[in-house]
Specification:
single chain; about 20% strand; Gyrase A, domain 2; four-stranded antiparallel beta sheet; alpha+beta
Length: about 120
Amino acid sequence: MTDSIEIPIACTLDAGNLKERLGWIGQLNARSLRGSQRGDLNLILDYAPEAIGEVREMVAGEQACCAFLAFAIDERADIVRVTITAPETAREAAEALFEPFAARGAFTAAPKECGCTSECGA
């Protein structure tokens, strides 16, 4: 038996803040994203090392609004690697969840009523 609390698969940002956040992430990616790799339930993003401050800011912001995603930062001399992992319960929505993070420019998916761009069903 597990005592874990299931976190809803939903972003807590309203539509305006979501649009602003996605634009900011798109700008960061245009400047500093060197590559990405998509796994089953994870996405690995490699950023230029000089972007560490912005990468930390992005991760902190995303952890606050999308608590169902797990974020890990691996700081290396030549790269800052961010690994984003979605829970099994978000498997069907993983592609839509990861798309804004891997985009190398402005991400323009229209938010749903709940304010997220995922397939959360809201």
